[in-house]
Design goal:
Mean pLDDT: 80
Oligomer: single chain
Shape: rod-shaped
Length: 208
């Protein structure tokens, strides 16, 4: 009986020691070490609610720190809410959780506001780029239209020149034809004179 009491006392002393060490590690933000020590206490005494609460505090504080690094303040606030609602545990950790929660709420508002501003800026930049692309496309179309118009004018001018040249050539041919007819008229007269002479010559011979 004395031996049983002795071992029971030693076991209780060991659990209290582990519990105190776990609490100290927790409040020093050594969350992994705190979980290991408090887990030993719970293995020896699963009904120790204080050890269970501090174990949960260590888990949630560690999770909140990881979410803070990722700027996921919504999740970090959820972890801190769990700590605030726990019964028992470290009062220092509860105070720290409440303080951090207020900071995270403010940071979360600023973070979401900055996200909205970035989205709006991105929209503005996108709109400006789209406007620039549209203006460049419009200028290019106007340039192409101007080139096309010049080509059409040039083609029209060439066609007009060809028609003018054709008309001049036609008029030149007509002039040559008229000149040829005038030249032929004297030759006809000469031919008639020649025929007349030939007709009169036999008559003269006859008289002789």
């Amino acid at each position: 009986m004395i031996i049983t009491i002795f071992f029971t006392g030693c076991s209780a002393f060991k659990k209290d020691e582990l519990l105190n060490e776990g609490k100290l590690a927790l409040e020093k933000h050594e969350y992994t070490k705190a979980q290991d020590l408090l887990s030993q206490v719970l293995t020896a005494d699963s009904t120790n609610e204080n050890a269970r609460s501090m174990y949960m505090q260590a888990v949630k504080m560690n999770d909140a720190a990881e979410y803070e690094e990722k700027q996921n303040y919504d999740k970090a606030i959820e972890c801190l809410n769990v700590i605030e609602n726990l019964k028992g545990g470290s009062s220092e950790i509860k105070k720290e959780a409440s303080k951090k929660k207020k900071e995270f709420i403010k940071l979360n508002e600023e973070y979401k506001k900055s996200q909205e501003e970035r989205k709006e800026n991105a929209k503005d930049v996108s709109s400006k780029e789209q406007y620039k692309l549209e203006q460049d496309a419009l200028k290019e179309n106007q340039k192409q239209d101007a080139l096309k118009e010049k080509e059409e004018q040039k083609a029209q001018e060439e066609e007009n020149n060809q028609q003018d040249n054709k008309l001049e050539n036609t008029q030149g041919d007509s002039s040559q034809e008229n000149t040829g007819e005038v030249i032929q008229t004297p030759s006809n007269n000469q031919s008639q004179s020649s025929n007349t002479n030939q007709t009169h010559q036999p008559q003269q011979e006859s008289q002789i």
